[in-house]
Design brief:
The complex is a heterotrimer.
Chain A lengths: L3 H14 L1 H24 L1 H6 L3 E2 L4 E2 L2 H32 L2 H16 L2 H19 L7 H11 L1 H13 L3 H9 L4 H12 L1 H17 L2 H6 L17 H8 L5 H30 L2
Antiparallel strand pairs in A: 1-2
Helix pairs in contact in A: 2-14, 4-7, 4-8, 4-11, 5-8, 6-7, 8-11, 9-10, 11-14, 13-14
Chain B lengths: L5 E10 L2 E11 L4 E5 L6 H8 L9 E9 L2 E2 L7 H7 E4 L10 H12 L4 H14 L3 H4 L12 H13 L5 E5 L7 H14 L4 E5 L3 H7 L2 E6 L2 E7 H6 L4 H7 L5
Parallel strand pairs in B: 3-8, 3-9, 6-7, 7-8
Antiparallel strand pairs in B: 1-2, 1-4, 4-5, 9-10
Chain C lengths: L2 H34 L5 H5 L2 E2 L4 E2 L2 H32 L4 H15 L2 H15 L6 H25 L3 H9 L4 H30 L2 H6 L17 H10 L4 H33 L1
Antiparallel strand pairs in C: 1-2
Helix pairs in contact in C: 1-11, 3-6, 3-8, 4-6, 5-6, 6-8, 7-8, 8-11, 10-11
The chains are: A mainly alpha, B alpha/beta, C mainly alpha.
């Protein structure tokens, strides 16, 4: 028994609420419409697994970029995840309230720093360090991994902290009552219980890393070749778009949209697995 | 004889499949205080909230039967619910000032209805606060937050907020359950004066309160009306054994 | 290993990790601020960049940043807050709410460069808005929409349920209840979402450079192309035009982000204190 006015406002709210669905659809449609024709023209297999990217010769193979993205992201996870997990355990279990009240906003701030600033800092700090002490050009997968490892910290820390904090208190009290030390409790009771949340945190952190563009452009060297060591320069899917979108046209531009499709597909896959991880409780 | 202000006829009330009020009939005369009491989960709150259709907000709520306000069924499709709620005001168990000033809390209802000019609104607010016996406590700080008042004052603010709508019926759901005896006494005194102008239905937080303020009482059990009559009559000489047990504290 | 020994080792490692994170943060902040703050002066803030940015100040990029951010926030806030109200006040959990939540979550996961591609092909080319403040702002609006939806929804859910009952029982309609009782109580939380959105707009480069362009002129309308501070910093640093001016721009960006974060935290604290 709603009044007509009320039914009207409800309609309006529904239309407004469908905005996110509509833009999601728009994004998907427009990216696909731009990118699919070139994939069809080159052939899906040759586009994804082709090792030569030479737009001037009409050769569009993005395999080196896929390898680059995977390598840099894995490196970032290896560096970032352990630190982030320790940090979330610190915040949830060990930190005195006063320390926590400083560290939490600090990590929030880390999330707010523009990605170009990370890249710039990496270029002036991390890259020379690698060049001098480890060799190679410095602009490398390792440099990208370090920067992305730092950049994924806030995502992984905050989500794992939340999943640790949302555990029922009885878990901890029960373990303490059995005479376990605090660390034993964390390792054998709390971490396993919070596993699904932590896995989701890691996956979302990886998603953040694989989607990052500007920071990696500055430290990765951007060479289009399959890297052989972590000290080699590389190019990722995102940087491929970021570097060439400025001047690309025609098939070349379409190929960059097609690169975006592959990127989107990877991200969707990661998001779906993060959601699966949290649902499997 | 005057017709009853509210006439409940054969009311059945359900939440999904669960029936919480059974075949309930009762006439409530104007300008009296009726106390509806009973043990927990006997359906008193639902009965109260059905009278101004606040039950519409509860998922799965469904009513059969009629509640006639001045002869008009409140469940009819053509009833304007907001108008009904203005005529039938509600005071809740927990004092709930909105996060606004004292003045704005009282002015909230009138403002929803129309754009009154300042002077008129000031007068409505003052009258309401005077009637709720709160004016002297707050007249110098009308623009401080309502939440800063004491519990008893907050509840009187909530009563004033209802009075500002100039309703015809006031429903009070255990309005004193969290209050100290002095605040309770003040509110009960206000209620005795307010019945001159309004019809009051009260769920008391204990049997003694029903005895102190009500003209008539109705005893509910498991959603059914067990006994109804003048307060003195029912308290001195209950017809039903269960009523007797409850009043004398031998229940359950 | 002895349990108390392993406990001690674990504690050291965990404290070390936390300190490392703080150290990295400080290293980045101090590095940029120490090098950059001396570059900031009145001329730097008020003059237009000259000679590709080598000389002059960055005034047009400050204006560009403000305008792109303003468009994004003005567009995204009503949609984000409206969505949050729909999800919390107008409907029970259903297929439609699941679809809306899924869309918002998916949007939140899309990389900014993909938003850039979309903004370029949709706003710049298809809608023929060109590289402009409008294209950049609309692209950023899409990007910050999920943030505003999520924070607003949380804020609305913390509004005590009795407020709604009270408003309805005083004869309020649903709309009046939302506008006069629920919205004011949720406002600080909603503001936090908007502030976080502003932060993302200020910090974003990839999506903006593809949609707002990188013109150095002072923008004259919403259809003018513009360069934001983050884009300006990126171009200056990457092409090595002027490292000093790059530092100055970065320092200003960091200061802005600091202010935005502190503002959001103050609001959250006030919100939490009031809820008690």
């Amino acid at each position: 028994m709603k009044s007509p006015m009320e039914r009207f406002t409800e309609r309006i709210f529904l239309v407004v609420a469908l905005s996110s669905l509509s833009v999601l659809a728009l994004i998907t449609v427009f990216i696909f419409v731009e990118g699919v024709p070139i994939i069809a023209k080159v052939g899906f297999f040759r586009f994804v697994f082709g090792t030569v990217w030479a737009p001037s010769q009409n050769l569009y193979g993005i395999f080196p970029m896929i390898v680059g993205s995977v390598a840099v992201t894995l490196g970032a996870a290896v560096i970032g995840v352990p630190i982030a997990l320790c940090c979330s355990i610190f915040l949830a279990e060990f930190a005195p309230a006063a320390v926590r009240n400083v560290v939490r906003p600090a990590i929030q701030l880390l999330a707010g720093i523009p990605s170009v600033v990370y890249g710039f800092w990496g270029l002036l700090f991390v890259v020379p360090f690698i060049r001098v002490y480890l060799g190679g050009p410095g602009l490398s997968i390792l440099a990208g991994s370090i920067i992305l490892g730092i950049m994924m910290l806030p995502t992984v820390i905050s989500i794992s902290e939340v999943s640790l904090l949302s555990l029922p208190r009885q878990y901890k009290e029960g373990a303490f009552a059995l005479g376990l030390t605090h660390w034993q409790t964390i390792r054998t009771v709390l971490l396993p219980a919070a596993k699904s949340g932590i896995v989701a945190a890691i996956i979302l952190g990886i998603g953040r890393a694989i989607g990052e563009t500007m920071a990696v452009i500055m430290v990765l060297g951007n060479a289009v070749a399959i890297p052989e060591s972590i000290l080699d320069p590389a190019r990722t899917l995102t940087t491929n778009i970021g570097i060439e979108m400025g001047y690309a046209s025609g098939d070349h531009q379409q190929a960059l949209f097609a690169t975006g499709i592959v990127l989107l597909a990877i991200i969707m896959l990661l998001n779906a697995s993060a959601q699966l991880a949290t649902r499997r409780k | 004889m005057q017709p009853p202000k509210i006439d409940i006829r054969g009311l059945d009330f359900f939440f999904d499949k669960k029936q919480v009020i059974r075949d309930f009939s009762l006439e409530i005369p104007a300008n009296e205080i009726l106390a509806v009491f009973g043990p927990a989960n006997s359906g008193t709150t639902t009965l109260l909230q059905a009278m101004n259709r606040l039950t519409d907000l509860r998922p799965g709520a469904r009513a059969e039967g009629r509640i006639l306000l001045d002869g008009k069924n409140v469940f009819d499709a053509d009833v304007n619910v907001t108008e009904l709620r203005r005529r039938v005001g509600m005071v809740f168990e927990v004092p709930t000032p909105l996060p606004l000033s004292i003045y704005e809390n009282v002015a909230y209802g009138p403002r929803l209805r129309s754009r009154k000019n300042h002077a008129a609104l000031d007068e409505v607010v003052e009258t309401a606060l005077v009637r709720a016996a709160l004016w002297d406590d707050v007249k110098d700080r009308l623009h401080t937050a309502g939440a800063r008042l004491s519990g008893g004052q907050q509840q009187r603010l909530c009563i004033a907020r209802v009075l500002a709508l100039e309703p015809e019926v006031i429903l009070l759901d255990r309005p004193c359950s969290g209050l100290d005896p002095i605040s309770t006494a003040k509110i009960e005194e206000s209620l005795r004066q307010l019945k001159e102008h309004f019809t009051i239905v009260l769920i008391p937080h204990n049997v003694q309160q029903a005895g102190r303020v009500a003209d008539q009482v109705a005893f509910m059990l498991m959603g059914s009306l067990v006994e109804h009559g003048a307060t003195d009559e029912v308290f001195r000489n209950p017809k039903n054994q269960k009523t007797n047990d409850y009043i004398t504290g031998r229940f359950g | 290993m002895n349990p108390s020994t392993s406990q001690r080792i674990a504690k050291v490692v965990i404290w070390a990790a936390a300190l490392l994170v703080i150290a990295v943060l400080l290293a980045i902040l101090l590095f940029i601020l120490i090098k950059g703050v001396p570059q900031i002066n009145w001329q730097f803030l008020t003059q237009i960049p000259r000679n590709m940015g080598r000389d002059g100040g960055i005034s047009s990029t400050i204006v560009g940043t403000l305008l792109v951010t303003a468009v994004a926030v003005l567009v995204a806030t009503p949609f984000g807050v409206g969505t949050a109200f729909y999800l919390t006040e107008y409907t029970k959990e259903s297929r439609i709410t699941r679809i809306i939540r899924f869309s918002a979550e998916s949007l939140a996961g899309i990389p900014s460069i993909v938003f850039g591609l979309f903004g370029f092909i949709f706003f710049v080319m298809y809608l023929k808005l060109g590289w402009s403040i409008l294209s950049g702002g609309l692209t950023m609006a899409v990007m910050i929409l999920p943030t505003i939806i999520r924070t607003s929804e949380e804020a609305i859910r913390t509004v005590p349920a009795p407020f709604r009952d009270v408003s309805f029982s005083l004869g309020g309609t649903k709309w009046q209840t939302i506008v006069r009782a629920v919205f004011p109580s949720a406002l600080p939380g909603i503001a936090v979402g908007v502030i976080l959105g502003i932060g993302r707009c200020v910090a974003e480069t990839a999506a903006v450079i593809l949609t707002a362009g990188s013109a150095l002129r002072m923008p004259t309308s919403l259809f003018s192309p513009a360069r934001t501070m983050a884009v300006h910093f990126y171009i200056m640093a990457r092409e090595g035009i002027s490292i000093d001016k790059a530092y100055g721009t970065a320092a200003l960006l960091i200061i802005l982000i600091l202010i935005i974060n502190v503002g959001a935290n103050l609001l959250v604290n006030r919100f939490v204190a009031k809820g008690k």
